[in-house]
Amino acid sequence: MKSVIHTAHRIIIKVGSSLVTNEGRGLDHAAIAKWAAQISALRGLGKEVVLVSSGAIAEGMLRLGFEARPTDVHELQACAAVGQMGLAQIYETSFRAHGIGTAQVLLTHADLADRERYLNARSTLATLLRLGVVPIINENDTVVTDEIKFGDNDTLGALVANLIDADALIILTDQHGLFNADPRKDPAAYLIKEGKAGDPALEAMAGGAGSSIGRGGMLTKILAAKRAAGSGAHTVIAWGREHEVLTRLAAGEAIGTQLTAQTAQQKARKQWMADHLHTAGKVVLDAGAIEKVTREGKSLLPIGVVAVEGQFGRGAVITCVTEAGLAVARGLTNYTSSETRLILRKPSSEIEAILGFMEGPELIHRDNLILL
Ligand SMILES: Nc1ncnc2c1ncn2[C@@H]1O[C@H](COP(=O)(O)OP(=O)(O)O)[C@@H](O)[C@H]1O
Ligand SMILES: N[C@@H](CCC(=O)OP(=O)(O)O)C(=O)O
């Protein structure tokens, strides 16, 4: 079996708290330096990498002198805010040693549930990748309480994989992967080398005695693999301290547990958009725009739009139709329906003069567009 990471172009790598903070003893400079070196090598192979890092609370507890995890939510949030400074500092320093810049991105559940913020987060991450920066993502713990939390960074990693159409999610943890039972409790447990993301049998193994959904551990990783597969991304769960784990995976070596997505990426993405976002309106395209969008893989510019149907806000999903009414594409719009009515048939150079601002030269950027 060859690792899916070999052919993956855009990869999300999630590192857990115990790895990052050396089991709570403080940020593990040596381990982080090794991942940074390996990620630098992956980028040398032309891959794009986004890092999702936990560890803010664990590091903040140490810095503030808490011996046990606080139960008060605001103390936990204070720990996260303090610890996040350490994370940002160590990642920036470690990647800078390879001439790579980093960016801190803190997200909440509300950010990805709101269309406009979803679109902004998606565009910002795509722009950071285009600029050659490694985004370092964590949950914005300071502003969230239990009900509106992602809850764990395995879930956050999967949502980010969905958000930016990643090909793969690598979850680095303190075990060699998924075992048929919790290896801490069952010494006879064996490693599951491969499986299908979403297979309920995997959840039963990770659920094990006593653990319950949403409380971290292996189950959130298995559920994250299922979620990532929703947009066609494969997942690998591996031990973060395995020698050259990332570069070996990229070379095709099968390490840890590989959970493959069962639906092809483009199909899964269409399905995901169809399931998650309602179509709020339509734009009618002229023949030239149809050609650019459907055959040449270009963005949709306002100049190619001849009519607008319905009311929609910025970030809404709209359908692109031919003058005969045939739906050809769907995507997230940069302009509201009223704005689009003002700029249709106009060159993008006139957008600013007409509206007084410009969100972008495109009505729908090709990154946010799927063909039907
Ligand atoms: N079937 C299983 N296979 C592997 N690990 C399991 C399994 N069931 C439970 N676990 C536990 O999950 C832990 C990893 O989860 P967690 O501590 O949340 O890691 P991280 O901080 O990397 O997210 C392991 O240390 C292990 O004790
Ligand atoms: N935002 C939290 C992440 C908590 C979390 O999910 O931790 P883990 O299960 O170790 O990945 C932090 O940085 O401490």
Automatic annotation (TrEMBL):
Protein location: Cytoplasm
Ranges for domain PUA: 281-364
One of the record's GO cellular component terms: cytosol
Pfam families (UniProt xref): AA_kinase, PUA
CDD domains tied to this protein: AAK_G5K_ProB (cd04242), PUA_G5K (cd21157)
GO biological process: L-proline biosynthetic process
Positions bound to substrate: S54, D141, N153
EC identifiers of the protein: 2.7.2.11
Chain positions recorded as ATP binding sites: K14, T173, D174
Reactions accelerated catalytically: L-glutamate + ATP = L-glutamyl 5-phosphate + ADP
Involved pathway(s): Amino-acid biosynthesis; L-proline biosynthesis; L-glutamate 5-semialdehyde from L-glutamate: step 1/2
Single GO MF annotation: RNA binding
Keywords: Amino-acid biosynthesis, ATP-binding, Cytoplasm, Kinase, Nucleotide-binding, Proline biosynthesis, Transferase
InterPro entries tied to this protein: AceGlu_kinase-like_sf, Asp/Glu/Uridylate_kinase, G5K_ProB, Glu/AcGlu_kinase, Glu_5kinase, Glu_5kinase/COase_Synthase, Glutamate_5-kinase_CS, PUA
Protein function: Catalyzes the transfer of a phosphate group to glutamate to form L-glutamate 5-phosphate.
Family matches, as PANTHER family: GLUTAMATE 5-KINASE, ISOPENTENYL PHOSPHATE KINASE
Similarity section: Belongs to the glutamate 5-kinase family.
Name recorded for this polypeptide: Glutamate 5-kinase
Species annotation: Zemynaea arenosa
Taxonomic lineage of the native organism: Bacteria, Pseudomonadati, Pseudomonadota, Betaproteobacteria, Burkholderiales
Gene: proB
